[in-house]
Design goal:
Blueprint lengths: L2 E12 L38 H13 L3 E2 L2 E2 L2 E4 L9 E4 L6 E9 L5 E13 L3 E5 L2 E5 L6 E7 L6 H17 L12 E11 L9 E6 L2 H20 L7 E6 L4 E7 L9 E2 L6 E2 L2 H8 L6 H12 L3 H7 L3 H14 L2 H19 L10 H12 L5 H14 L3 H7 L8 H14 L2 H7 L5 H12 L6 H14 L1
Parallel strand pairs: 12-13
Antiparallel strand pairs: 1-10, 1-11, 2-6, 3-16, 4-5, 4-15, 6-7, 7-10, 8-9, 11-12, 13-14
Length: 476
């Protein structure tokens, strides 16, 4: 029998507010354990929460970007459970009335097929503390307790592990581009739980779902779903009953493992949070937030393809870093050479930033300076190789291309008479390439061009050198 995979994702995203959800403690990552805490996030007796307005704003902003309806009347609820990482023994979250609902993300697989993945809801909640398990016992760091989260819950529309990573990557890029979260998976700012089940192909009835908790990389996500699909198929075909449970992905053993029985909603005994008032959202506030949303990454991809004639791949590489996309656009517009702009930004400039651990915001030169360099090359005044030397000096000193060219006498020699004299001298000193060429070794001509460029220290116009060497070789 053929089986169909059914996946729904629950993605927890830490919001980039300066303070926590219900108090004024810092949300900064790191710090000494238990140094970003107060009576409210430690749930000391008598401490009362007050909701952070920025959290509501960021949640609405996320909902708009993800094509959701914004529910104008909302509230917070208590989700009751006892666990050491939850100091109140309940979590303040949203259950019956989430702030955002009925959205979608459109994904595209490797074959270019597009599909809409529905978003059931986006709700606000507070993060829990972090448990550190040691041989001596379990330690708790409450710095993360009370950090604001949104939970983006997809509909069970995902059918392959590839679709799940496409969805998660696109979600990450959208939320990061609108400035609500840094989405750093390595810091826990974006964490993903997957609900996975199987059913006979063609069936409309859902199977028993298994939850896989806190998958922290795209690679691990695909591997976990692939493993779990095969495990459930084997179990069903051997007559074993699939039970609703929570499992975790063991990276070292490449398998999912049981953590605990899966709770039902009724187990949490949800009820309205009595210490916080209802949330009423006005149309004016929604419109104001809507105006703060920049062009979304995948809209930018389509526009770059149309306006700058870049490939889809190049455009998608650029939008992984919106600063790079903006730097590219400014350079492409002014230089009217989008391909050169892309090649410099994603080539030598990216290489230098990686080598020196420098971000794009810390570059010592501007798009206008890169435009100047591109124009020097396009006009034939300097070569690409000289351009690389110039960009390296610009990176270190911040000097303008024209200053470096003048200081180091980089201007390219485009005099045919002078270049021809150099070619004849090099041919006289190195007769073998011409002899090889006459004997049918056509690559010898490239060797001679290299010798001439070396003789001129890269300052001869490459096109003129190429034309003159070809002429000299073919007339002798």
């Amino acid at each position: 029998m053929e089986y169909e995979l059914v996946i729904g994702l629950e993605v927890h995203v830490e919001l980039s507010t300066k303070t926590k959800m219900y108090c004024g403690c810092s949300t900064e990552f790191g710090g000494e354990p238990n140094s970003h805490v107060c009576p409210i996030c430690l749930a000391l007796p008598g401490a009362l929460p007050r909701i952070n307005k920025k959290v509501i704003e960021y949640t609405i902003k996320s909902g708009i970007a993800l094509n959701c309806s914004i529910n104008k009347k909302s509230r917070m609820d208590r989700k009751n459970y006892f666990y050491p990482d939850c100091p109140k023994n309940y979590q303040i979250t949203q259950h019956r009335f989430p702030l955002c609902s009925d959205g979608y993300i459109e994904v595209e697989n490797s074959e270019g097929e597009k599909k809409k993945i529905g978003i059931e809801r986006i709700h606000m909640e507070e993060d829990a503390a972090k448990l550190i398990h040691t041989k001596a016992g379990t330690l708790i760091n409450y710095n993360r307790a009370g950090v604001p989260l949104i939970e983006v819950v997809s509909k069970p529309d995902i059918r392959t592990p590839e679709e799940s990573t496409c969805y998660l990557q696109k979600l990450k890029n959208i939320l990061r581009s609108i400035g609500v979260s840094n989405c750093k998976m390595e810091q826990g700012s974006l964490r993903c739980d997957g609900n996975i089940s199987i059913r006979p192909k063609g069936s409309r009835k859902f199977g028993v779902k298994v939850e896989i908790k806190n998958v922290n990389s795209f690679k691990a996500l695909e591997k976990a779903f692939e493993y779990e699909y095969l495990r459930q198929v084997r179990a069903v075909e051997s007559g074993e009953k699939i039970v609703q449970e929570t499992r975790r992905w063991n990276e070292s053993k490449n398998r999912t493992e049981v953590m605990r029985a899966k709770e039902q909603a009724r187990d949490y005994r949800y009820f309205p949070e009595g210490d916080l008032t209802a949330i009423n959202i006005s149309n004016e506030w929604i419109d104001k937030i809507r105006k703060t949303i920049p062009e979304l990454p995948y809209d930018k991809v389509e526009r770059f393809i149309k306006e700058y004639n870049v490939s889809k791949h190049d455009a998608e590489v650029l939008i992984l870093n919106m600063r790079a996309a903006d730097f590219f656009e400014k350079t492409a517009k002014l230089s009217r050479n989008p391909k050169a702009a892309f090649n410099w930004i994603m080539g030598d400039i990216s290489r230098l930033m990686n080598e020196k651990s420098v971000s794009l915001s810390k570059l010592k030169f501007k798009p206008e300076d890169l435009v100047s360099l591109i124009r020097f090359i396009d006009s034939g005044m300097i070569s690409n190789n000289i351009g690389t030397e110039i960009i390296e000096e610009m990176f270190v000193s911040g000097a303008k291309p024209e200053e470096i060219i003048e200081k180091r006498n980089f201007l390219q020699n485009s005099s045919e008479d002078e270049i021809l004299k150099i070619i004849k001298k090099v041919m006289k000193d190195n007769p073998k390439p011409l002899e090889d060429y006459k004997n049918g070794k056509k690559r010898a001509i490239k060797f001679m061009i290299g010798l001439v460029m070396k003789e001129t220290k890269g300052k001869a116009n490459p096109k003129i050198v190429n034309d003159l060497v070809n002429r000299e070789f073919n007339k002798n």
